[in-house]
Amino acid sequence: MSQLHQVALTLLNNIGPSLAKLLVSHFGDTENVFNAPNYKLLRVPGIGEKTISQLNFKEALTKAEAELKFVEKNGIEIIFYTDSRYPKRLKNCGDAPILLFSKGNANLNMQHVISIVGTRNATEYGKHLCHELVEELKQYNILIVSGLALGIDVAAHKECVKLNVPTVGVLGHGLDRMYPSQNRATAEKMLDNGGLLTEYLSGTIPDRENFPQRNRIVAGMADATVVIEAGIKGGALITAEIANSYNRDVFAFPGRVGDDYSEGCNFLIRNNKAALLTCVADLAYSLGWEKADNLKPAEQFMLPIDLSAEEQLIFDILKQSNSPVAIDDLTIKANLPTSLLAMNLLNMEMQGYIRSLPGKTYCIN
Predict the structure, then answer these.
(1) CA 319, CA 47: separation in Å to the nearest integer?
(2) How far apart are CA 238 and CA 232, in angstroms?
(3) Under 8 Å between Cβ of 25 and 345
(4) Which of 81, 147, 221, 232 gives 90 a disulfide partner, CB atoms 3.0 to 4.6 angstroms apart?
């Protein structure tokens, strides 16, 4: 697909991640979306006359062209949601961004991924827990994700740098700046074994509303989220809530009753929103992990077990074909309305069972 059109798709008025994915699924690739006449756009569920009247195709392409120049100049990778490099765990989240900007050398699909979050006012106790947690997690084939904020976030990243554990910082702004600026040196070191990730274009400032959005990526790209220290309000609890909404495991270290920065952790544990964590063994046992030296080769292909009847029908049709199947042929073979077929294809693609190819064709992933 054209990277220019991929970036431009994120700049269209009133087109969020879900609708953008549906457009790509319907037309086969991003360039076709921009070249589609209005009568074809109206066939896409969720697209009406009002939406079409506000589509800013030309303006979006102009801004995207400028962004591509910035990306190329600064060694940044563009990762579209159909790209194999896109975090597969995040892909399964309905509100996942369609595009990410990545800098560094991180493998976003490592065998195990853990998010570590906590208060910006980390105590020595919290920093010590960070050290112990990262040190023990090193024995697993793991990537550690956090938000590169002050406090627990940056403490986790620093421990990873010190212990040579891959780590990624998810930002609430563009890659043309660093907020807070105190973390710039740590961010630069992270590029050697990990990196920086954001959904925001250059020029995006760290507005307050960006950080809850950032937190959904921190939660969504991990197997589990660990809360080390947290007040009763703040980003760490928001991230934990998002992780719960994605049906991901959440763990929290308990703190002393009455401590401000343990109140959030104790709240999560008390209300069954997080499992009590006292050591990495608890976490590894709950997630069914084995140490890296005991790992067995993973099977290359597993049959899906959680597809609906319609999705299973589509999967079987694609599996029996020796080549990608066009959406028109799928409509006939599956005997499903185009709109219903498109929704099922989108859901299966987001789960990683199939992938879309140019020309509105599909194949088993």
Answers:
(1) 31
(2) 10
(3) yes
(4) 221
Cβ neighbors of 273 (< 8 A, separation 6 or more) are 240, 241, 244, 250, 267
pLDDT at 19: 93
Question: What does the pLDDT read at residue 364?
Answer: 86
> Quick check: 179 and 150 in contact, CB under 8 A?
no
Distance of CA 48 to the CA centre of its chain: 29
Please, are residues 102 and 21 in contact by the beta-carbon 8 Å criterion?
A: no
| Distance separating alpha carbons of residues 313 and 7, to the nearest angstrom | 33
Contact 51, 14 (CB under 8 A): yes
pLDDT, averaged across the chain: 91
175-180-184-190 Cα dihedral, nearest 10 degrees: -70
pTM for the model: 0.79
Backbone angles phi, psi at 146, to 5 degrees: -155, -175
Query: 67 or 308, which is more confident?
Result: 67
Locate tokens 């969504």: which residue?
220
For the chain, give the number of residues: 365
One-letter identity of residue 307: L
pLDDT at 134: 96
Confidence at residue 293, expressed as pLDDT on a 0 to 100 scale: 58
**pLDDT digits over 121-162, tens only?**
999 999 999 999 999 999 999 999 999 999 999 999 999 999
pLDDT in tens, 192-233: 999 999 999 999 999 999 999 999 999 999 999 999 999 988
Q: How far apart are CA 90 and CA 165, in angstroms?
A: 21
Statement: residue 257 has pLDDT above 90 = no
Q: Which residues contact 81 (CB under 8 A, 6 or more apart)?
A: 21, 91, 96, 97, 98, 99, 350
Q: At a CB cut-off of 8 Å and minimum separation 6, what does 15 contact?
A: 9, 23, 51, 55
Residue 294 has pLDDT above 60, yes or no: no
Q: What are the DSSP calls for 76-99, one per residue?
A: PEEEETTSTTS-HHHHTSTT--SE
Compute CA distances 328 → 321, 338, 345, whole Å. 15, 8, 13
* Model confidence at 304: pLDDT above 70: no
